[in-house]
Amino acid sequence: MVMPNFNFQRSRHDIRHFYEWLSEEYEWADHIGEWMDLYADRKGAQVHRVCIIAPRSHSKSATLRVKLLHMCLFEQRNNNPIEVWLFSASIRQATNRLEEIKTDMRRHPELRKYLDERKSNKQRISFTNGAWIQATGVGSAIRGEHPAVVALDDVLAEMGDMTMESVSEWFKKVITPMLDPGTSLYCVGTPMAHTDLYHTEMLSEKAKQVWKSGVWSAFPNWDEHRADPDNVKLFPLWPEFRPTAFLLEQKISIDDDLAFAQEYLCKVVDDDAQVFNRHLIRENIDIDSVGGFDSQLNDGSRFILGFDPAHGIGKDYSVLICLRQDEQGYIHFVDMWRRNDFPPDKQADVIIEWAKHFKAPVAAEDVGFQRLYETVIEQKGGHLEYRSSKASNKGLKQGLMNRLRVWFDRKLIIFPYGSDDIRKKVNIILDELEAHVWKKGEIVDVGRHNDTVMAMAHAIDQFKPKQNNFMPMVSKTTSMGGWSKDRKNPKGINRRPGTGKYVRF
């Protein structure tokens, strides 16, 4: 016969058993074990600081609640009951977290007797052993409190009128003074920006001296898969309950690659991190021009085609982009062909047609083009001028992206926006551009595709600035958009005269 208090007694020294016993909804996983180990590992720290950055729907809040409840039931600090302040983004969210703890306790007779209903209220759990948990929202003014535990649960989820800076100030002025030797400070959340509380106070290189922290992704090998999708299969952080198919379905449902990267991959994407931020790339939109296959062929412009082939039918897109440079030196997007269901021989027909129509050379990655298309085009009797980008090398690809950014930085790229068809094509390019971010000094894309950006980069790299268009040299050490010369308005730069038809978004 199993004793009624067996689960309770075992839970005292077995946090996994306690976790799984509390609720059928609490499913243990390796990453949850890692978090519990972090919570338990003080290693002589004066203040035990733990920061866990994890994706949505992976039980980071549930794990924190279970840890707090376990401490209140089974632990003491200096022979005194455990006292906890629990902060969330709002009072409503904080009280919801508290109610979930009460529900866990009421579910089990062994735990219900420790819940002091008389002293508890909406924002407080009081235990019969003297422990308590007080819940409130971020920004609350707390004075004179020195609890055993301070817990921050998704404090950035819905901050209302509070800014990133004000949350950080609140943390320094309110939370930090609450800490005493022996205090535990726990923080869980999902990132919002490079300037958020997590990055400024907990994840920086300096912070790592006192914080035990980690960042978990719903797909730990996302970057490896993106680099080699044919040979690296995605594996999820929590395959039993958040499998690959579910996560990819969420990605489609969200329909925002940057939001998915932030919420599930825990990759911060904001204007400071973006290589081509929204303001930069939408600086010049020509609402009168419709572009297109038959536009402006006889005005003295120079045309170049950029081509990025797919790596198989049904996967990435093969993209052919036409750009033109006017007499003033400005680059205009003309038209784009984009398909993922054309074999190389049919793509070759399109390349031949466009090269003949625009009387334009074709720029593409050297290896890829030669392997798939050069022979096919010759067999078809096509004659075109080929410009090699030689961009198969990683460093050379970085150079392409850097130089593309320079053209945008100098406001020398104009997109037509005067018809539904051209807007659809332009928006595809703009969305892919916005998905490129800085990571450890390199440019990477976090979107689903970057085929249009590569095609555009191949083409634009063949143009040269006019004498009146200042173009800075790009250093190999270029970092976060900083160029080797003054970006503001170097002497001699010729800005495009205002016509009234270019709008900023």
Write the layout of secondary structure elements.
Blueprint: H1 6-11, H2 15-22, H3 30-40, E1 48-53, H4 60-74, E2 76-77, E3 80-81, E4 83-88, H5 91-106, H6 109-112, E5 124-126, E6 132-137, E7 149-153, H7 164-175, E8 184-189, H8 197-202, E9 211-215, H9 222-227, H10 244-254, H11 257-263, H12 278-281, E10 285-286, E11 302-308, E12 318-325, E13 331-339, H13 344-358, E14 362-364, H14 366-379, E15 386-388, H15 394-409, E16 413-416, H16 420-434, E17 436-439, E18 442-445, H17 451-460, E19 502-503
3D structure, described in words:
It contains 17 helices and 19 strands. By secondary structure, the protein is an alpha/beta fold. The protein folds into three domains: about 5-215, Rossmann fold, CATH 3.40.50.300; about 220-265, no CATH class; about 280-505, Nucleotidyltransferase, domain 5. The protein has an eight-stranded mixed β-sheet, with helices on both faces. Strands 5-6-4-7-8-1-9 form a seven-stranded mixed β-sheet, covered by helices on one side. It is elongated, with a radius of gyration of 29 Å.
